[in-house]
């Protein structure tokens, strides 16, 4: 009996210490790991902000090959959501929604693990020198289990840290393997859902090196404006140029003007159509029309980095009026339809 009494007292003391220590242990878990990637910031950023790219580098995505994954909201950026359902205890069921997105510098997301609670994940992109980016992956979670929460945080922390290191190494490998690593961070991009509009247009065929291109476009827009005035129509937006063919020796495009409604008879060569409706990526070009090739190089590089597919003809929207805007201040929005 004396031995049993000693054992009971010892167990009580151990249990008491366990409870006492548990009361003072932090029940939150915070993790932060970093790696240096040999690319500009926009390259690893594009792999994170487009959640459809996560299976290419995220360590948990490769644990269960039968995991069900769905995507909602925008293709990338604020509001993009990824949901998963797995039979693996390591993966489980949950969702990830981007709640903050500062292009090329910071992404934050809310993780919802259902009955297991919520957590916060974030990514920082810091260019430490040209062509080199320090990427930091962080995680914060409150484990709201009295007494045991602190112990659980202590056990889970090292396991999550190990996976974060693996994930960052995979992100580095993926980012450095991307063929077009052009630095696009000095440009302003957005991914938008655009609506179609009624336009009247004139088609032109020429060559990319045509020195009289500006005059031909001006003549086409003049003819379109005449049609609008003669028929009593109203413009509903700025002029547009839709590229329909771009090859080494061929350049075909439609000069268009959005209209409220079609009235009267259009003159020869003028036709009515509707513009693209759907998802498009936009880059803002500021400056001379003659320098837009650089903006095209940049947007094509970024589309490639994001892993998107071009699904139609690009177009330019001329926001500024060149008759009263300095050439270096001209604003043109360039769009590419993507999925």
Short structural summary:
The protein is of the alpha+beta class and 339 residues long. It folds into 2 domains: 154 residues, Alpha-D-Glucose-1,6-Bisphosphate, Chain A, domain 4; 149 residues, Multidrug-efflux Transporter 1 Regulator Bmrr, Chain A (Alpha-Beta Barrel), CATH 3.20.80.10.
Describe the protein's topology:
Layout: H1 2-24, E1 28-37, H2 42-49, E2 68-72, E3 81-85, E4 93-102, E5 106-112, E6 118-129, E7 132-142, H3 148-177, E8 189-194, E9 198-206, H4 213-230, E10 240-246, E11 251-258, E12 270-274, E13 278-286, H5 292-306, E14 315-318, E15 331-337
Antiparallel strand pairs: 1-7, 2-3, 3-4, 4-5, 5-6, 6-7, 8-13, 9-11, 9-12, 10-11, 10-14, 13-15, 14-15
Strand proportion, as a percent range, falls in: 25-35%
Widest β-sheet, arrangement of strands:
8-13-15-14-10-11-9-12
Report the order of strands and helices.
HEHEEEEEEHEEHEEEEHEE
**Average pLDDT across residues?**
87
Can you tell me the CATH architecture of the largest domain? 2-Layer Sandwich
Category by helix and strand content: alpha+beta
Q: What is the fold named in CATH at topology level of the largest domain?
A: Alpha-D-Glucose-1,6-Bisphosphate, Chain A, domain 4
Helix content: 25-40%
Q: Could you say how many structural domains there are in total? A: 2
